[in-house]
Amino acid sequence: GAPKPRLTFVGCGYLGATYAICFAELGYEVLGIDVDSDKIAKLSGGEVPFHEPGLDELLRSNLAAGRLAFTTSFNEAAEFGDVHFICVGTPQRNDGMSADLSYVEQAVSKLAAALPRKALIVGKSTVPAGTATWVQQLVAKHADPDLAVEVAWSPEFLQEGHAMEDVLRPNRLVLAYQSAWAGGMLYAAHKGVFDLAAAEEREVPVVTCDFATAELVKVAANSFLATKISFINAMAEICEVTGADVTLLARAIGHDPRIGQRYLQAGIGFGGGCLPKDIRAFQARAQELGAGESLRFLHEVDLINQRRRNRVLKLAAHLLDRSFGPAGPDLSGARIAVLGATFKPNTDDVRDAPALAVTTLLANAGADVHVYDPAGMDNARTVLPDVTYHTSIAEALPDADLVCVLTEWTEFRNADPTALAHLPAQQVVIDGRNCLDAALWTAAGWQYHGMGRP
Ligand code: UDX
């Protein structure tokens, strides 16, 4: 068949680096580009600058195979690639709501200006509606018009901790393009994904659509997931005043296939680099488009999510027998062990992590907080330097008046409550993720408190 197009991934953060490595693994010749020379040096040296299971090994084998390289040079990338995937970040602006597109602007302008031949630029970053058309205008402004450079859009749905699978075996591909040539290039650039699926006798559903739909798919999917989580957390609040158990409630409603079991885990809510910022940027964009009303419920979704963090503070104050004044509780003199810092397990990411937010609330209330997380401590230290960090559960627990489990790492789920019971001063545990076996912990002599559970 036709030779495989050569691919570049512009922006080697979490998204771009994962894609670059996985597409090299699929047999493409790949170049990753980033303006951050430290990041590029690490990746070139075989080191993934973030924690993602299995990715290090894949990076090293593909570097060795000569299919994968990294650069800081836009000229080199422009010279190399037939298809360029834009994977730069779109962080939240200082207004706390809308998305900052300056990285997209820089990446596209520099790349377009350096292109020596016709190429396809594919947007992957999560962006507000209307960005693809704006990118086309940027390309028109910076690229040589004779080259007829084209733009396409294909959102990604990576889940941290599961990212390799999500790239190699996506549960769907969304492809938006405007010419037969662009469509052909996009399919060629994903042939490896289709071939792998065929070899495993799977199918990859493809949704071909216009730019506006492709841009919306990502934020709509994340809004749905965030809403599902806040829904069950709202039910947890109701369970707390009725004496019901939200874990059983979730299981019971989840047996209805129209609802499904997943994303109904009540606890301290959602965090991370995507869900919170995406639902805010989506609201800001809808407002600009005169459709703010349509997404007003996402504001409520956000509020429910924020309330879960305070719930742990309130419960801690109650369990430690402290009064809760207008300025919040005074927890001074109390020693609290916190297990978990990352926004979910199997990642070192602490961006907007509910666990760290709760830890900050506890520390600000005057508690002496002792934290252990299996992977996120280096990142946690930079965000929250003023608490004490430990390198194991057994080191974090001694003399604690209260233990809070805030991220559902397997190491915490599997911890033996009997073996740990002698360590703290009081055998009281708040299970912020409903991840512990309540009966087992109670039998081992602990006072167990879940979220939305009696
Ligand atoms: C999310 C989307 O899942 C992914 O498709 C998109 O591309 C990026 O955003 P990610 O940020 O990796 O991925 O996190 P995810 O696994 O979805 O979890 C988000 C947060 O929700 C975590 O803090 C998690 O603890 C929380 N969560 C998830 C719950 O509180 N309850 C649940 O039932 C599920």
UniProtKB/TrEMBL annotation:
Binding locations of substrate: 157-160, 218, 263-267, 271, 344
Keyword presence, NAD: yes
GO biological process, one term: UDP-glucuronate biosynthetic process
Assigned EC number: 1.1.1.22
Superkingdom of this protein's organism: Bacteria
SMART domains tied to this protein: UDPG_MGDP_dh_C
Pathway(s) of this molecule: Nucleotide-sugar biosynthesis; UDP-alpha-D-glucuronate biosynthesis; UDP-alpha-D-glucuronate from UDP-alpha-D-glucose: step 1/1
Catalytic residues (positions): 274
Known catalytic reactions: UDP-alpha-D-glucose + 2 NAD(+) + H2O = UDP-alpha-D-glucuronate + 2 NADH + 3 H(+)
Keywords tagged on the record: NAD, Oxidoreductase
A GO MF label: NAD binding
NCBIfam families given in the database record: NDP-sugDHase
Protein name in the entry: UDP-glucose 6-dehydrogenase
Annotated organism of origin: Natronosporangium hydrolyticum
